[in-house]
Amino acid sequence: MISLAIIGGLLVTLIYTLNYQLGIADRHGVVTIATTLAKEKMYEMEKSPVDSSGYFRDPWSGFQYETKVLESSFPGMIEIGVVVRSGKDEVELSELIIENRE
């Protein structure tokens, strides 16, 4: 009886630990994809900085983005920012770029 209780306790601990680790691995996958999408959107913003928001196309339709263009305290520069969200996870990137004066 004692050995069955010990084995049962070990199995419960093992299953809990496995579920926890699988959740962490899934979250890391989502954050990696969101970071890659944010970098891609940041690259687009460097060429044409505009405020916008929306969803990415398939297969990333579960991810939404928001871009912002802000004034900078540095003369001749602006701050561009991108936020990518998927569920409760969020990745935010920002960068200073030289303002285009056309």
Describe the structure in brief:
The protein has 102 residues and is of the alpha+beta class. Helix content is 45%, strand content 31%.
* Element-by-element helix/strand order: HEEEE
End-to-end gap: 82 Å
Specify the helix fraction band. Answer: 40-55%
CATH topology: Pantoate--beta-alanine Ligase, Chain: A,domain 2
Beta-strand percentage range: 25-35%
Describe the structure.
The chain has 102 residues and is α+β, with helices and mostly antiparallel strands. The chain has one domain: Pantoate--beta-alanine Ligase, Chain: A,domain 2 (2-Layer Sandwich). It has one helix spanning 2-47, and strands spanning 52-55, 64-71, 77-86, 89-98. The chain has a 4-stranded antiparallel beta sheet with strand order 1-2-3-4. Strand 2 (64-71) and strand 3 form a beta hairpin. The protein is elongated and about 75 Å long.
List the helices and strands and how they pair.
Layout: H1 2-47, E1 52-55, E2 64-71, E3 77-86, E4 89-98
Antiparallel strand pairs: 1-2, 2-3, 3-4
Question: What keywords describe this structure?
Answer:
single chain, 102 residues, Pantoate--beta-alanine Ligase, Chain: A,domain 2
